[in-house]
Design brief:
Blueprint: H1 3-32, E1 56-61, E2 67-73, E3 80-85, H2 96-104, E4 108-112, H3 131-145, E5 150-156, H4 158-169, E6 173-179, H5 185-197, H6 202-216, H7 225-228, E7 237-242, H8 250-259, E8 264-269, H9 277-280, H10 282-297
Parallel strand pairs: 3-4, 3-5, 5-6, 6-7, 7-8
Antiparallel strand pairs: 1-2, 2-4
Length: 298
């Protein structure tokens, strides 16, 4: 093929490949940091009222001034407070089951919506980045409600990863249950790319990280619970995971457990998908979580 034909052809192929990579990276960042468009159905949720539990609707402020909404389930006789940390696309009502169980066990409970979710102020979702500050704001709020509060956190998926990162920074978090956390945001994105697209993930992860930095001002490659979990010791942690998790492979739970210090427990729920341990055995799950926090927050 003549050089004058080959060079434009190669340039067209390169431009097409670059365009495809950029488009794929843009799609990945949209999945990682969507901005939820609210609908009237979003208010059609259960509250603690449906479960016969007294509660107060509260609002707290993030470090950058956003209003974060929540429910305070009071136990005036207790100094123990458990904060619920929901998943990436979730909201506070997702944690009503375990939250009301902890209240019935005698603990104050705070369930709140991360920025851009539920009834909190709109904001593009991030994956750990801004949410750590939101959880720390919830911890600060709990300390204003209970003198000498003993604070625990129960988190699921992204909420578990956020809780690990927050607990490493905030020593007043006295105990942690991290259910279905990933080792690092880049690891879970790479797993998703490999599973859904069937291609080597590294180039796309790097490209998506660059696009994310320009779109939203943060990098998901900097969010690594695996590097933070060791700093939680000597405070206790349960690392829980579903054995059949297809979103975050259970091997990541084993890696987190190996990196954590004592005291620590690894709890793998057989037959459970992502965040499925609660649904495999609701009564057993709540009994175990209640006993853990009763021991360390009393």
């Amino acid at each position: 093929m003549p050089r004058r034909v080959l060079l434009p052809l190669l340039a067209s192929v390169a431009l097409g490949a670059a365009g495809s990579m950029f488009g794929a990276a843009w799609y990945v960042t949209t999945r990682v940091s969507p901005q939820h468009r609210r609908r009237y159905q979003d208010t059609y949720t259960f509250t603690p009222w449906e479960l016969g539990v007294p509660f107060e609707e509260i609002s707290l402020r993030s470090a950058d001034g956003l209003a974060l909404t929540g429910w305070w389930l009071p136990r005036p006789e207790s100094r123990g407070v458990v904060i619920g940390s929901h998943g990436h696309s979730g909201s506070k009502d997702d944690l009503l089951g375990v939250g009301t169980s902890l209240w019935r066990a005698g603990l104050n409970v705070l369930l709140f919506d991360y920025r851009g979710r539920g009834d909190s102020d709109p904001w593009p979702h991030t994956l750990i980045s801004r949410e750590v500050d939101d959880l720390l704001a919830a911890v600060a709020y709990a300390r204003t409600r209970v003198d000498a509060a003993r604070i625990g956190v129960v988190g699921f998926s992204m909420g578990a990863a956020v809780a690990i990162m927050a607990a490493a920074r905030e020593p007043t978090i006295a105990a942690l249950v991290a259910d279905s956390s990933f080792t690092a945001v880049a690891d879970v994105v790479a797993h998703g790319v490999r599973r859904t697209l069937g291609i080597p993930p590294a180039p796309l992860v790097r490209a998506a990280d660059e696009v994310l930095a320009r779109r939203h001002g943060y990098r998901f490659t900097h969010a690594r619970p695996i590097d933070a979990v060791g700093a939680i010791s000597p405070r206790p942690i349960i690392i829980a995971h579903g054995a059949d998790d297809s979103t975050v492979p259970v091997g990541q739970a084993h890696q987190l457990f190996a990196a954590a210090g004592q005291p620590k427990q690894l709890w793998v729920a057989e037959g459970a998908e992502h965040c499925g341990g609660y649904f495999v055995d609701r009564e057993g799950y709540c009994a175990r979580v209640n006993a853990f926090f009763a021991k360390y927050l009393s």
